[in-house]
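Review form for a predicted model. The reviewer records the input and the model, then writes brief findings.
Reviewer: anonymous (R2)
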Amino acid sequence: MHHFHSEQLVRRPVDEVFAFFSDANNLEAITPRQLNFHILTPGPIRLAAGARIDYQLKLYGIPLKWATLIESWEPPHEFVDVQLRGPYRIWRHTHRFLAEGAGTRIVDDIGYELPLGPVGRLVDARWARREVAKIFGYRTEVISRQFS
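Model under review:
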């Protein structure tokens, strides 16, 4: 299993930051445009443990469908989503929101594994790890603007 970790401090209270992430429509706004990411699940989507969200995106022009399940929901401090269907063999994303002074530290921990065993590990080392980091770099910029 591979791991990705990201942290970002924003100068807004935890309740406000969690509320932003509680709106599934904001996921489109924090995903790079070149992925052509769109939510397929009809809205409004009420995020809670057990909620399923279906997405569509394009990776280098290849259309992909992705389905996630909200595995745990603990407002306003944490939630976990897991991939039910998509490009990864395993994808588990823990979102944490920690009060820090007058602000919030946003912590993302992702455990993931690509399919195809040794071939998937090679693809991760040469490509996937960098792509995940780029996506979260973009996300950090958008969130900074959102909460500035």
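Findings: Strands lie at 2-10, 38-39, 52-59, 62-74, 78-85, 90-100, 103-113.
Further findings: The first strand starts at residue 2 and ends at 10.
Recommendation: see findings above.
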